[in-house]
Design goal:
With 303 residues, the chain is mostly beta strands. It is built from 3 helices and 16 strands. The strands form 2 sheets. The protein has a 14-stranded antiparallel β-barrel with strand order 1-2-3-4-5-6-7-10-11-12-13-14-15-16. The chain has a two-stranded antiparallel sheet with strand order 8-9. Strand 12 (235-244) and strand 13 (248-255) form a beta hairpin. The radius of gyration is 19 Å and the shape is globular. The chain starts with a helix and ends with a strand.
């Protein structure tokens, strides 16, 4: 099979899966599972979540499994996210790329604690309960030549709210292609899977289609994604990253179509494969500010 046919089939598969999901989910439906929607990656978040389709780092495990083929040999890391409404999450990921394929594993855990329990208008809550999400994923990516890669992630998803819990499965599909050393394109479709049922209520996982491009010139990279949740309108995300001697990084981004957020900022340090990244995203309407931080380690294969 030629590379052009591979690219065509990958894109058509993602588009067809997206169309199928649109037939199953209406705008009035409410998708649960916040951990599937909030990127754990500070670098991605700082750039307006605009590189989910084209990223080639450890956190491609979250947004596009095809991207893990760009890991030099081995990558490991963790991330912590402090989000709005007292939501916080922890992410741990591993990627191993011995040849023209790559394997990855990730765990993403999110929680909100001390939620008040009320059955009516009372001056004091009747008690408190927690919300807990867990996503465990196994990823596989395969390179076709030096320019094209496709990827698949299989995920176990678990959610517990108070005394109610539900377990399901989901898959992510991804594709990336480097048109040149400077320009890359990509697409992914995330969270296609079973419904979750809590108590007597059943709901769909929040499916998301991403497609975009990344362009690098000298020390600057510009990224852009169209992010299309199947229960919402499309959003346009833009971001930029400037590096000093490939050691210090400044980042910023913009997201359109959201009521409570639009701009983001961040910075990073990378030295001999050890990376430390931070992102700051302010929210409007007194929702507060959000912070993400991550630590990563990259190991290149010895020739």
């Amino acid at each position: 099979m030629t590379y052009k046919k591979t690219i065509f089939l990958a894109l058509m598969s993602i588009i067809c899966l997206s169309a199928s999901a649109r037939g199953q989910v209406d705008k009035d439906d409410i998708s649960g599972f916040s951990t599937l929607l909030v990127t754990p990656a500070p670098r991605h978040a700082a750039m307006g979540n605009s590189m989910g389709s084209t990223a080639g780092d450890l956190f491609s495990l979250y947004s596009n499994p095809a991207g893990i083929i760009n890991v030099p040999y081995f990558a490991a890391g963790f991330a912590h996210n402090e989000w709005i409404a007292d939501y916080r999450s922890e992410f741990v990921g591993l990627v191993y790329r011995p040849s023209n394929y790559a394997l990855g594993f990730s765990i993403n855990y999110g929680t909100v604690g001390d939620i008040e329990r009320r059955t009516g208008p009372t001056p004091e809550p009747e008690g408190y309960f927690d919300l807990n999400d867990l996503v465990a994923g196994f990823s596989f990516a395969r390179a076709f030549g030096r320019a094209t890669s496709v990827g698949l992630t299989v995920k176990l998803v678990y959610e517990k709210i108070d005394v109610y819990s539900s377990t399901g499965f989901a898959v992510d599909f991804g594709f990336q292609h480097h048109l040149s050393s400077q320009l890359a394109i990509g697409a992914s479709f995330s969270n296609l899977g079973s419904k979750l049922k809590l108590d007597e209520e059943e709901y769909d996982l929040p499916r998301v289609l991403r497609a975009g491009a990344a362009y690098r010139i000298a020390d600057f990279m510009l990224t852009g994604d169209v992010v299309y949740p199947t229960d919402d309108d499309p959003h346009f995300h833009l971001g930029g990253e400037y590096n000093f001697n490939r050691m210090f990084y400044l980042r910023s981004g913009f997201q359109s179509g959201y009521d409570e957020k639009n701009v983001s900022f961040g910075l990073g340090v990378d030295h001999r494969g050890i990376g430390l990244d931070y992102a700051y995203i302010p929210f409007k309407s007194d929702l507060g500010d959000t912070h993400r931080i991550s630590f990563t380690y990259l190991l290149s294969k010895e020739e």
